[in-house]
Design a protein that fits this description.
6-stranded mixed sheet, binds adenosine monophosphate, 8 helices, binds magnesium ion, alpha/beta, 26 strands
């Protein structure tokens, strides 16, 4: 009889261990704000001015003094015109200023009357039809941002909104975390690159290398500088060579395939020979074979991180999102790396419990519930395209139609 296998590591045990090893790289660079989309801010951004810089009009209309308008239909003299980009003079009693959206409120004025409520009269006068309340249609200086406030903190992932905010504070450049340098290679003698052999000419047993395409795209989305090292043959020497060569100039070596216990799986012993394996094999489905380790760099320059993903495409995809993604964001200094889990209704039954925690590919339907992709096999990549997320199902749990389940959306997870 075989010796009992040690229990697999749970995701909840593995993740803290993995994240504890993902010390931020601490290398920063300055980039143009225009080019900072998707990067991670490395220094707090403190406002050096108020936004808006001064009180200004929220409407096209008339700047007025409320004291002049005790009742509807008061008539005022229009003594100045203030378009956006200019500024006016002090407004005297009985006067109104024609003003446009964004233009500064002239001293003395305490409200804006929208142009629909002001009826122009002969000889530069205006009849104000409604009584304004003080402060009406005035955007106050600093109502968005006050000077000295920390507007974005180090570790923030920058997107379009953050870039606009930084620009509103006058920042044309931002200090961001350096892109992690990642070496990517696929293992497997059965792999063929699309474009090298036509689909009709594929030899028996050959398959196209699909992992290389989605892993590269995922790495780029996580802000990485990717060295794509292609396909490494299923041979011990070739594997050792590829790992040793990649360790020097990279922060992380990411591989797919060859990480199980088959005779053709050389990744694990090669990492052990060149460094250390921290953890291996998780109680998740898809994705059991997953390895985390370190590979020594030449002559005392420390180690490169190593992560080995399973070869089955869906396993590779899901373990990337569960484990590599948070690791890469941490290397760039991001604190919150957990995806948001949303309670949703399952519109299907999943009666068979599994000993491993499952990540089922599902799609939101028009009735506010989730439909299940019928084939949950770890080789069926169609499931991640048909699906728009996964259900995170605890080990040993089942689902009955109508149950509330925990959903992770690909929209968030892939960003
Ligand atoms: P392995 O983890 O190397 O045992 O591979 C498990 C399964 O995934 C096998 O059926 C492989 O053919 C398949 N596989 C491995 N690498 C890739 C890849 N890069 N693209 C597509 N399928 C792969
Ligand atoms: Mg293989």
């Amino acid at each position: 009889m075989n010796a009992p296998r040690p229990p697999l590591l749970t995701l909840d045990e593995a993740l803290p261990n993995l994240l504890a090893r993902a010390q931020p790289l601490g290398v920063t660079e300055s980039v143009a704000t225009f080019d900072a989309d998707g990067r991670v801010l490395a220094r707090d951004l403190v406002a050096e001015l108020q936004v808006p810089p001064q009180d200004n009009s929220a409407m096209d209309g008339y700047a007025v003094r409320c004291a002049d308008i005790a009742a509807p239909n008061a008539t005022l003299r229009v003594t100045q015109r203030i378009p956006a980009g200019s500024h006016g003079r002090t407004l005297g009693p009985g006067e109104a200023a024609r003003i446009f959206t964004g233009a500064p409120i002239p001293p003395g004025a305490d409200a804006v009357v929208m142009q629909e409520d002001g009826e122009p009269q002969p000889e530069d006068r205006v009849c104000i039809k409604a009584v304004p309340s003080p402060g009406a249609w005035i955007r106050r200086s600093g109502e968005d941002i006050t000077r000295g406030r920390t507007v974005l903190t180090a570790g923030t992932r920058l997107g379009p909104g953050e870039l606009g905010l930084a620009a509103s504070l006058g920042c044309d450049r931002l200090t961001v975390a350096a892109r992690p340098r990642v070496a990517l290679f696929s293992t497997g003698d059965e792999l063929v690159m699309p474009g090298t052999v036509a689909p009709t000419d594929m030899a028996p047993g050959a398959i196209y290398n699909s992992n290389r395409f989605f892993l590269r795209a995922l790495l780029q989305r996580m802000g990485c500088q990717v060295s794509d090292l292609g396909i490494v043959p299923d041979r011990r020497e070739a594997t050792l060579q590829a790992l040793a060569d990649a360790a020097g100039p990279h922060d992380l070596i990411l591989t797919s395939g060859g990480v199980s216990v088959g005779e053709e799986d050389h990744i694990k012993p090669a990492v052990q020979a060149l460094g250390e394996l921290h953890l291996w094999s998780l109680a998740i489905k898809p994705g059991k074979p997953f390895a985390l380790g370190a590979v020594r760099r030449p002559s005392g320059q420390g180690t490169a991180h190593f992560m080995g993903l399973p070869g089955n495409p869906v396993s590779s995809f899901v373990t990337f999102l569960l484990l590599v993604r948070p690791f890469l964001w941490r290397l760039q200094g991001v604190d919150r790396v957990d995806p948001v889990r949303q309670p949703m209704r399952a519109d299907f039954d999943w009666p068979k419990p599994d000993r491993r925690r499952e990540f089922l590919r599902v799609r939101r339907n028009g009735q506010g519930g989730l439909d299940l992709f019928p084939n949950q096999s770890s080789g069926v990549l169609t499931s991640v395209v048909w699906g728009d997320g996964v259900i995170d199902l605890q080990a040993g749990a089942t689902i009955a139609r109508g149950d509330t389940v925990s959903f992770i959306s690909f929209v968030e997870w892939l960003s």
